[in-house]
Write a structure and sequence with these properties.
binds UDP-4-deoxy-4-formamido-beta-L-arabinopyranose, Rossmann fold, 3-stranded mixed β-sheet, globular, alpha/beta
Length: about 325
């Protein structure tokens, strides 16, 4: 199939393009390069030895998006483009609502106009809000703690309503847990600009000597060792979940958790990283981060059952691959 990947130069997007190409599909990437670089596109070509079409546009620009649909014949869209920093969204809610909603509406208008009826949407476990883990797709969503999470809830509702009026339009909503790691080549990975908000890139930067120690945000949570618990999934497993969702697409709207189904605490991840690399990660316990929840991990039985997909890579592999990318990565 010929697949349009919006945000395809980003962390999840670039890995998803590789998984699509390795599964025999062709991809067209559009991205505004706000949180990514053209280097990712070059790396995708190098890793897959395939040329891919890339166009630098803002996905919210309806006319630019329509020109892409006019020039190509798409079998499906994987829509990843969007702003995704939770803390940032609390500071700049209007920017998040405008960008994440307008980009989704722009793509959906083009899909309707050009009769593209397979749509995979990048959602997030954040939509579960203060529910209790393990999260299941049938759970009633509770208010999230941030505008980013609210944009994902709204986009899920928009997709559901459109599918109700257009029987031919099929949607897979993928709720990501915590993607970490990098492609085994070490050529692409998570390269946040500035000081990382997320745990794994901060750990790899401590290992590289960019920071003297890791701040562990709180150790009084009701978890095995008191530190926050998350469902970390290798980014290539997540990417392969997108391929499965596109290939197994059936009519209607389907929601899937993409995680491992296992919770890992901060201290357990630090220990796994030290085991995988032989590098000691100094840390200090600091205050809890506002908006954090104690425990977040998935019930993944639906994706296993309906997509015949499950995460294959383990924590040591995630740490080893994340470290390899950090060692190769030269900040541009
Ligand atoms: C993980 C754990 C922190 C940094 C975020 C987004 C979510 C999704 C995945 C988009 C928590 C602790 C972290 C640090 C720490 N992204 N931590 N020191 O917050 O679970 O989820 O990424 O969909 O929307 O919110 O990930 O990596 O920030 O935190 O102790 O320097 O690590 O408290 O327990 P999070 P994270």
């Amino acid at each position: 199939m010929n697949i349009l990947v919006t945000g395809g130069a980003g962390y999840i997007g670039s890995h998803t393009c590789i998984a699509l190409i390795e599964a025999g599909h062709s991809v067209v990437v559009i991205d505004n390069l706000r949180n990514s670089s053209k280097y990712s596109i070059e790396s995708i070509k190098r890793i897959t030895n395939q040329d891919i079409s890339f166009c630098k546009i803002d996905v919210s620009d309806k006319s630019a998006v329509e020109r892409i649909f006019e020039k190509n014949s798409f079998d499906g869209v994987i829509h990843l483009a969007g702003l995704k920093a939770v803390g940032d969204s609390v500071i700049k809610p209007l920017e998040y609502y405008e960008n994440n909603l307008m980009s989704t509406l722009s793509i959906l208008n083009a899909c309707q106009k050009f009769n593209v009826n397979r749509f995979v949407f990048s959602s997030s476990a954040t939509v579960y809000g203060e529910n209790k883990s393990p999260f299941t797709e049938t759970m009633v969503l509770m208010p999230t703690t941030n505008p980013y999470g609210e944009t994902k809830v709204m986009c899920e509702r928009i997709l559901t309503d459109i599918a109700k009026t257009n029987q031919a339009f099929s949607v897979s909503i993928l709720r990501y847990f915590n993607p970490i790691g990098a492609h085994e080549s070490g050529l692409i990975g998570e390269s946040p600009t500035g000081i990382p908000n997320n745990l794994m890139p901060y750990i790899t930067q401590v290992a590289k000597g960019k920071h003297p120690f890791l701040n562990i945000f709180g150790n009084h949570y009701p978890t095995t060792d008191g530190t926050g618990e998350r469902d970390y999934i290798h980014v290539m497993d997540l990417a392969e979940g997108h391929v499965a969702a596109m290939e197994q697409m059936t009519e209607g709207v389907h929601i899937y958790n993409l995680g491992t189904g296992r919770g890992t605490t901060v201290l357990e991840l630090v220990k796994a990283f030290e085991q995988a690399t032989g590098i000691t990660i100094p840390f200090k316990i600091s205050v809890q981060r506002q908006g954090d929840i104690a425990s977040c991990y998935a019930d993944v039985s639906k994706a296993q059952r309906q997509l015949q997909w499950s995460a294959k890579r383990d924590l040591i592999g995630m740490c080893r691959d994340a470290w390899r990318f950090e060692q190769n990565y030269q900040e541009v």
